[in-house]
Design goal:
Pfam families: VanZ. InterPro entries: Teicoplanin_resist-assoc, VanZ-like. Keywords: Membrane, Transmembrane, Transmembrane helix. The protein folds into two domains: 50 residues, no CATH class; 117 residues, no CATH class. It contains seven helices and two strands. A two-stranded parallel sheet has the order 1-2. Helix 1 packs antiparallel against helix 2 and helix 3 packs across helix 4. The longest helix is centred in the last third of the chain and has 32 residues.
């Protein structure tokens, strides 16, 4: 993990506390609001903080799956960046499945929209790059999060059903 990524995590934790304290103070803190606040703080800090001082080589990257060539050229860091992009959007997919009651297609579309909003605003942000690979990996992360949440729900239902005592036919009569 790079120093910039560690700094982003620190900023995300700091912003989470800043935004959670008023909710706690006014007694409006719920599990759902806390989860959304922490996720939004981490998402913002990972995509916009810290402000980079070195300008990128390009402002826009429109070649799909360019990260593969970048991995061969730059090494493991390009692969790690794409993996982190997928992981960054997994919670969004899970939240959309659990709380939003969305289909996988709707969740993927919302993930794409959030990613497009972030990437579009990075065009205006100093020293950030619009990357089509980020759109792909973020949307993939949202869909994987939705599928993971669905799998967890199905496993939980199966375990819970198996744990219930079975009624015998004699007790029914």
């Amino acid at each position: 993990m790079t120093n910039a990524q560690l700094a982003s995590i620190q900023w995300g934790l700091f912003l989470s506390v800043v935004f959670l304290l008023p909710q706690l103070f006014f007694r409006q803190l719920t599990f759902r609001s806390a989860t959304i606040t922490v996720y939004a703080s981490m998402l913002f800090s990972a995509t916009f903080l810290p402000v980079q001082t070195v300008p990128p080589r390009q402002a826009v990257q429109l070649v799909p799956f360019q990260w593969i060539a970048d991995t061969f050229r730059d090494g493991q860091i390009a692969f790690d960046q794409m993996t982190l992009n997928v992981l960054l959007f997994v919670p969004l997919g899970a939240m959309l499945m659990f709380w939003g009651r969305r289909t996988i297609g709707q969740a993927a579309l919302i993930g794409y929209g959030v990613s497009l909003l972030i990437e579009g605003s990075q065009l205006m942000w100093a020293n950030r790059i619009f990357d089509v690979d980020d759109l792909i990996t973020n949307t993939t992360g949202t869909a994987l999060g939705w599928l993971g949440a669905l799998t967890a729900v199905k496993i939980y239902a199966r375990v819970r059903t198996a744990a219930l005592p079975q009624r015998s036919l004699a007790s029914v009569r």
